[in-house]
Design a protein that fits this description.
It is a single chain. Strand 5, helix 6 and strand 6 form a beta-alpha-beta unit. This protein is an alpha/beta fold. It contains 13 helices and nine strands.
């Protein structure tokens, strides 16, 4: 388990997005950053030991971290692949040249956009032209790009059009459900009606967005038939599908470990600066319980897709204050058998394409 670490290295940011999940729009949250030596000794080395292979740098804005280049050097030295989730404001040719010199073309840059229209500026400050400009810069340097779309009621009307545009650009994307992690705004959270009627058309339209989305109507037998896997791990890992809790974990700038980045600052399984990472991930009650989907409640516990999907643990938490509750945004109970069967067929087809892409990406690593 735990092949991916979502590592927040700073809360500082050069943007002031109104509903910032990390709370970076509030300077009182800008706690002191840890030195590279601490990150190496308490996070990178232990993460390598337990089998983590990929690290996503985030924040705040990770490029603001006071010693970012030296941290990248350490990540490369310890043979991690890495990605940078950035707002793009500091991305320029000089920085890219420096990163290419250290890591070659082995890293991924995750750029965020919520819609390809004027509304994007309301939630991300920058407009869609800025996104295209940075995309061209990265393409010119042959750097892999992933698109991150925060999804909420604020962009539900345009989400499917956004996905179509991302498909035209030939890019993979992942959706991040809006969560009020460090914001008082709850009105823009998804509900099952909006997810079913406005959002899901984007989910099922292509396999490029198959990373970590729920609800996922993928039958267990389909998963094993497509992958040829014979072992049933606690959560799907080869590849990870549905909710990625158990496949990834998050560490915030203070060192607190959460099962999902959207749950950071809300629930913690322990702190790496007082307890070993291995103990936190494999011995803490929270991580042991949440990676066993028999411990889920409500319709998630009874669902035939519980192993491949698992429901969104973040949405469960923010609606019920219980991370083990059923996913309230799932609309499976609104579907008849015929509708569900059609979604199963579409989902399996997308999964086959996604699995081919997954195998191709592994061959380059």
């Amino acid at each position: 388990m735990y092949h991916t670490l979502y590592l927040e290295i700073t809360r500082r940011c050069n943007n002031l997005c109104p509903y910032c999940s990390a709370g970076s729009n509030k300077k009182e949250n800008w706690e002191k950053e840890k030195p590279v030596s601490d990150i190496v000794n308490y996070i990178l080395k232990p993460a390598k030991k337990i089998g983590t292979r990929f690290i996503v740098f985030s924040g705040g804005e990770p490029l603001i971290y006071h010693d970012f280049i030296n941290l990248v050097k350490e990540v490369v030295t310890h043979n991690f692949r890495f990605g940078i989730a950035t707002n793009g404001l500091l991305l320029n040719q000089d920085l890219i040249d420096e990163l290419l010199k250290i890591a070659g073309n082995t890293f991924v840059v995750s750029l965020g956009i919520n819609s390809f229209d004027e509304q994007n500026k309301e939630t991300r400050i920058t407009d869609y032209d800025f996104f295209i400009e940075k995309l061209k810069l990265l393409n010119k340097n042959n750097i892999a790009v992933n698109v991150s779309v925060t999804v909420g009621k604020f962009n539900s009307e345009t989400f499917c059009k956004t996905v179509e545009k991302i498909k035209e650009l030939g890019l993979p994307y992942n959706r991040i459900p809006y969560a009020p992690r460090n914001s008082d705004n709850r009105k823009d959270m998804l509900d099952k009606n909006v997810l079913q009627k406005k959002i899901y058309c984007g989910y099922i339209s292509c396999f490029n967005g198959f990373t970590s989305y729920t609800p996922l109507f993928l039958r267990e037998d389909s998963y094993f038939r497509v992958t040829g896997n014979t072992e049933k791990t606690r959560v799907p890992l080869n590849p990870s599908v549905g909710c990625w809790v158990g496949s990834f974990y998050a560490i915030n700038p203070a060192g607190d470990v959460a099962p999902c980045p959207l749950l950071s600052d809300k629930i913690s399984a322990g702190n790496v600066y007082t307890t070993s990472l291995e103990s936190i991930l494999y011995e803490s009650e929270l991580m042991n319980k949440i990676t066993n989907r028999n411990n889920l409640s409500g319709k998630c516990k009874k669902c035939k897709y519980v192993w491949t999907c698992g429901g969104c643990r973040s949405m469960a938490y923010y609606y019920s204050n219980d991370v083990f509750e059923e996913d309230p945004t799932c609309f499976i109970d609104e579907l008849n058998e015929e509708e569900l069967a059609k979604l199963e067929v579409i989902t399996e087809k997308n999964f086959k394409d996604y699995y081919r892409m997954y195998l191709m990406s592994k061959s380059f690593n």
